[in-house]
Specification:
FAD binding, Uridine Diphospho-n-acetylenolpyruvylglucosamine Reductase, domain 2, Enolase-like, domain 1, Uridine Diphospho-n-acetylenolpyruvylglucosamine Reductase, domain 3, FAD, binds flavin-adenine dinucleotide, 5-stranded antiparallel sheet, 3 domains, FAD-bd_PCMH-like_sf, about 290 residues, oxidoreductase activity, 14 strands, 12 helices, alpha+beta, oxidoreductase
């Protein structure tokens, strides 16, 4: 099938894009890497009358550090962020998360902002940003709104982005001295996950857990944070037994997805396994930092 007809604009600045978004109203949609939107257009699952292409706006695709904050432009390609030494050193969880997003050709076009705005429940980037407690910077003709990650993803393909707004930037606090891991189970490498787990671990000087974060994705409309598990790990030396005991506190009632091909029962089995692997891998990497 071919897309329904649409009018196409390619603004050169964010201001121009916001003007267009306001003047074209609810029939307009922005396009970033097109990796999700183009198939939706082709299948006529989306039929915008106007497409506003963000690809020619350089100010939206920079990664820079200001003090302890990393600013990531929404149009930063996933491949660019994955190859970025700044991201690898300062935001290791984002690096490991992006390794699991699609394939080299989809990452070459797909953007970080597009992935977050699309809000596929199985996408890795919303889980990563939740683990980092990142801030999403939304711009419109009315000004700027800063939305914390835990208020940004609202449900399946649903975010806090209001009509007239563009996700312009993601702001994340640098975390250079911690271990991180994103582990997932998918049918083939690059496929969307059946369950994923993102973990961040930082250690005290004596090797015990100073702080940890655990997010499980692809099991509910939004990624799930499990603070009870990570609180139980604080002050402990990591071992398989310690992590397994803490994971007993994972509230599996929060898992929701139950499809014909992947049952809720199966997700409740693999979710904790992914979480255990992610926590132990993050811990090993954190230990490596101390050596
Ligand atoms: C074969 C294949 C495999 C894939 N596997 C994975 C995977 O394993 N994990 C994963 O996470 N993703 C996967 N994806 C999806 C991919 O990561 C997409 O890049 C991503 O979902 C959308 O990013 P995009 O830049 O292409 O956005 P687009 O497709 O251009 O846009 C997606 C949606 O977001 C909106 N949007 C885009 N940018 C903005 C913005 N700045 N502000 C407001 N709204 C915006 C658009 O209007 C549209 O509704 C896969 C895609 C393909 C084709």
């Amino acid at each position: 099938m071919k897309p329904a007809p649409f009018e196409y604009f390619a603004p050169r600045t964010l201001d121009e894009a916001l003007d267009l978004l306001e003047s074209e109203g609810s029939e307009a949609r922005v396009i970033a890497g097109g990796q999700s939107l183009v198939p939706m257009l082709a299948l006529r699952l989306a039929r915008p009358e106007v497409l506003i292409d963000l690809n020619r706006i350089p100010e939206l695709s920079r990664i820079r550090q200001e003090g302890s904050t990393i600013h990531i432009g929404a149009m930063t390609r996933q491949a660019h962020a994955l190859a970025s030494s700044l991201v690898f050193e300062q935001l290791p969880l984002l690096h490991y998360g992006l390794q699991n997003v699609g394939h080299p050709p989809t990452r070459a076009r797909g953007t970080l902002g597009g992935s977050l705005s699309h809000a596929d429940p199985a996408a890795e980037t919303p889980a990563v940003m939740l683990a980092y407690k990142a801030d999403m910077v939304l711009k419109s003709k009315q000004g700027e709104r800063i939305i914390p990650a835990d208020e940004f993803t609202l449900g399946t393909f649903d975010t806090a982005i209001e009509p007239g707004e563009i996700l312009a930037e993601i702001r994340v606090q640098a975390k250079p001295n911690e271990g991180a891991a994103l582990v997932e189970l998918s049918r083939r490498k690059g496929d969307f996950a059946m369950a994923s787990a993102a973990a961040r671990v930082s250690l005290a000087a004596d090797g015990t857990c100073a702080e940890a974060h655990l997010i499980v994705g692809a099991v509910a409309p939004v990624p799930l944070r499990f603070d009870a598990v990570t609180d139980a790990l604080k002050g402990q030396k990591f071992s398989e037994a310690v992590v397994r005991e803490a994971l007993e506190l994972m509230d599996l009632e929060l898992f929701e997805f139950d499809n014909e091909d992947i049952s809720l029962e199966y997700r409740r089995k693999i979710g904790p396994v992914m979480a255990e692997r992610a926590l132990l891998q993050a811990f090993k990497r954190a230990e490596g930092m101390q050596k």
